[in-house]
């Protein structure tokens, strides 16, 4: 057996030709990478996909196929869409936190602008931070905007 076979040829138990379409993208030192792709897409389909692409796009396509296959194996129902939903939810939470903090800063600035400089320390000690709802936040025009979040079953 030739020890320089790529992971695909080792997995398929065949000789690895010098012009093997898989060898640049599925090295023998990372057999799991091809195993994921083969399990989800099949070697024949992956070979056709790579063959139909220009050479300069094949590496990115192989990486994408590997990531999508890994996500599908990890989460058979949602796959990559599940990861996108989780990241979208995290982004929405961060945007809501940022909006809440900006509103709190604006409220504090508004309160402190009405206080004389020598009364500032007493005012800071006696004033509590405004309590804002995490879902309804005031925007710059004075009206409230709603921060939506994804359902928890997307997690």
Summarize the SSE layout with pairings.
Layout: H1 7-12, H2 31-41, H3 43-52, H4 55-74, H5 80-113, H6 120-126, E1 136-138, E2 144-146
Helix pairs in contact: 2-3, 2-4, 3-4
Explain how this protein is built.
Residues 129-138 and 143-155 have low confidence and may be disordered. The protein has helices spanning 7-12, 31-41, 43-52, 55-74, 80-113, 120-126; strands spanning 136-138, 144-146. The protein contains six helices and two strands. It has a two-stranded antiparallel sheet. It is mainly alpha-helical and 155 residues long. A hairpin with a 5-residue loop joins strand 1 and strand 2 (144-146). 12% of the residues are buried. Helix 2 packs across helix 3, helix 2 (31-41) packs across helix 4 and helix 3 (43-52) runs antiparallel to helix 4 (55-74). Helices cover 57% and strands 4% of the residues. The radius of gyration is 28 Å and the shape is rod-shaped. The two termini are 46 Å apart. It comes from Perilla frutescens var. hirtella. This is LOB domain-containing protein 24. Residues 4-105 form the LOB domain.
